[in-house]
Amino acid sequence: MMLTMTGVHAHYGHIHALRGIDVEVQVGEIVTLIGANGAGKSTLMMSLFGNPRASAGQIVFDGEDITRLPTHEIALRGISLVPEGRRVFPRMTVIENLQMGANFSAPDNFEADAARVFAMFPILDERQSQRAGTLSGGEQQMLAIGRALMSRPKLLLLDEPSLGLAPIYIRRIFQIVRELNRDHGMTILLVEQNANQALKVAHRGYVLQHGGITIAGSGEELLASPEVRAAYLEGGHA
Length: 238
Description:
Layout: E1 3-12, E2 15-25, E3 30-34, H1 41-47, E4 54-61, E5 64-65, H2 71-76, E6 79-82, H3 94-101, H4 110-120, H5 122-126, H6 137-149, E7 155-159, H7 167-184, E8 187-191, H8 195-201, E9 204-209, E10 212-218, H9 219-224, H10 226-233
Parallel strand pairs: 3-8, 3-9, 6-7, 7-8
Antiparallel strand pairs: 1-2, 1-4, 4-5, 9-10
Helix pairs in contact: 3-6
């Protein structure tokens, strides 16, 4: 098992954001988390890095309890996050953003890792010296993913990767998710409001509501679930 969250609670001040979360991610899986705004999806992601720190429960990654580790130590264990809203360094160039992502990897790996990112995203290769803030939204998302891959993660966390993107880029992002998993064996935990696309690429999924898991199953099972279809796939709202 790559990741296990057992009975995890988390708070933002007096707000009880996560309520007894149980989530598992096996090696080589794509696992998706779906739910309405405010359900706790991004909080769950951030709690893996200790921000917010789990107030109860346990988080085990690759056989080690990381519940109380500082954020940088967790990153060194092999978890990398593509945050919601991309958050590239806008005044830095494309290549400088990739250098920032490589901080947790050996310097000797940089050229090979950058070449792999550029092979995956040729548009970034063409724009190595361009400032990230001048890229389109879809290009910035590609850069954010490439930056995360520069640390050679065991587990890649993707937080709302399709948010605010044009349809052509949304299709490309989900294609990239498939390719990373299928061709590179990448284990991925995906938070996504585009439930239809997310469940199509996922091996398994969880539905979050009000900080707790309400439904769990394979991607196919959740796509076929009347409750999931009514709430997330047919224009409804949870």
